[in-house]
Structure formats: C-alpha cells, structure tokens
Design brief:
8 helices, 5-stranded parallel sheet, 201 residues, 4-stranded mixed sheet, 20% strand, single chain, 44% helix, binds guanosine-5'-monophosphate, alpha/beta
Length: 201
C-alpha cells in the first residue's frame, strides 16, 4: 500500500497560519492532524486533545527520555513536541498527516524523515506583518517588538521549506495549499509501487 505523506506547516505569529489551517481541514478532511504535547497552561477557549495535549513538564521529560517524540522545542519557556507514534501509524495506514511546528521543529523532522513536504505560510509584506502584530491593540511596544523579531527569525528559516504560501487573501492561500497537496500525489516517490507493479517487481 502507498504510504501516507507528512506535511509540515509553519508560519510566524502574524502570518494568519491558524485561520489558514482551519480552512484547510474544511477542504481536505481526509488529512489527519498531529496533536502536539505541550507544557504551557491552557488558554481560555482551548480544548484538551483538540490541537494540543496539555501535559506536565515531568511527563514531557519522560517522553524525551523514552524517545517518544519526533521533535521537540522550547518556546517562550514551555515545551512543545510532536508524538512519534500517531504520525508513524498514520503514514503506515496510507493516511496523510499535517504537523504544525516552528522552524526548529521542522529541521528536526526533516532530518528523520527527508521525504516530508514542508509549507511555510508567509505574510505578504513586512508592513502587513507589523500591522497584524499590532492589530490586537493589547500588547506593549516591547512585546510587539519581541514578537516581530521572533517572526523575522522564523521567516529567515523559510528558505529551507519546499513551498511558500503567501497569505494575503485567505481563500487564495487555502487554494494554493490545496494545489500543493493535489500535485504532490503525482510526485515520483509516491508512485514507486505503481512502477514496480507494472514492471511486475
Ligand atoms: P502557541 O503557544 O501560540 O499555541 O504556539 C507557539 C508556537 O509553537 C507556534 O509557533 C506553533 O507553531 C509552535 N508549535 C505548536 N506545536 C508544536 C510542536 O509540536 N512542536 C514545535 N516544535 N512547535 C510547535
């Protein structure tokens, strides 16, 4: 059976990645989502097991020690990681799966699984990025400056991604993402079994 594909999605704060992802799942419900294990406290409105499993620091360190994580990173003092088993189960079953990670996480996954397809959600310009980061109106200038620097650091890592999707217009960005997933089915590495079958190998 053809293996599932791992898609990585990243994008800085201000790229609109969360909104793009919501729409992607409406359009591509067949793609599974990797639920990250994280140690930061739950925010209002978040639901355990939806996007994240909220776990203790002790349990997280145990997961690292037991090699249960595909990648992990510390972000603003909290641990974030991708559990390995659900990802491996999905691709073995032939199901595609989307993993949301930051740039550091993507580097680690690529090292272990070079066949992943990585997609970076990019704001259309520095000006738009700045406007989106200040738009919430609740943060101090210092916090905004920090978030902007963090976003620029992430954007510098975009050069290692397979695809860049610019999120200027939401529907266009979502359609662009869907196009990438559609064309990926035709990549040679996804069709080796077909070649072998026809050649009777
Ligand atoms: P937030 O706390 O705002 O939900 O997420 C903070 C950052 O962590 C975001 O950039 C998000 O993409 C990233 N992130 C979410 N899940 C994971 C994960 O499993 N691994 C890594 N390395 N980063 C993650």
């Amino acid at each position: 059976m053809r293996k599932g594909r791992v898609y990585i999605i990243s994008g800085p704060s201000g790229s609109g990645k969360d909104t793009v992802m919501k729409k992607i799942f409406e359009k591509l419900p067949q793609i599974a989502f990797s639920i990250s294990s994280i140690t930061r406290p739950m925010r209002p409105g978040e639901v355990e097991g939806e996007k994240y499993n909220f776990i203790s620091r002790e349990r997280f360190l145990e997961m690292i020690a037991n090699d249960e994580l595909l990648e992990h990173n510390i972000f603003v003092g909290n641990y974030y990681g991708t559990p390995k088993a659900p990802v491996v189960d999905c691709i073995e079953k032939g199901q595609d799966i989307l993993i949301e990670v930051d740039v550091n996480g993507a580097v680690q996954i690529r090292e272990k699984m070079p066949e992943v397809v990585s997609i970076f959600i990019m704001p259309p310009s520095l000006e738009v990025l700045k406007n989106r980061l200040t738009g919430r109106g609740t943060d101090s200038a210092e916090v905004i400056e920090k978030r902007l620097n963090e976003a620029l650091r992430e954007i510098a890592g975009a050069v290692d991604y397979d695809y860049i999707v610019v999120n200027d217009d939401l529907d266009t960005a979502v359609n662009d993402f869907v196009s990438i997933v559609s064309v990926d089915k035709f990549k040679t590495d996804r069709n080796i079994q077909l070649i072998n079958k026809i050649l009777n190998k």
